[in-house]
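Example record for the data management plan.
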Amino acid sequence: MLVREIMDNDPAAIGAGASLAEALKEMARHKTKYLVVKGKEDVVGILSDGDLGLYYGRDQSDGSDWERMTVQEIMSPRPLTVGSSENAGDAARTMLREAVSALPVVDNGVLVGLLSDREFTRYFARH
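Corresponding structural encoding:
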């Protein structure tokens, strides 16, 4: 089975300069735990609900920081990626070994999908 057979073909993405408030809205709108962070042309990071939760836990402000803080300040930079033609089992092993729950799918430098624990769960729920 290849990554392209189970990946999310329309991953939610956001720019690195977007505010954390915008990121929360995008996650809610797409009903996702992950946002792929894009630079001018390439994937520069990934932001998860866990990243936001860690920030929220240390944020002692009135909430205005969520408008001022940018995605780039708390995202995980330079995420591991996978190609759409790679073996999904190999990708799963990479996720386990590296303790990550999502991999942006990049072909020829272009974001084409997202492979996360959710896609594996969907696949096995259908089969």
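Summary line stored alongside the record: The radius of gyration is 15 Å.
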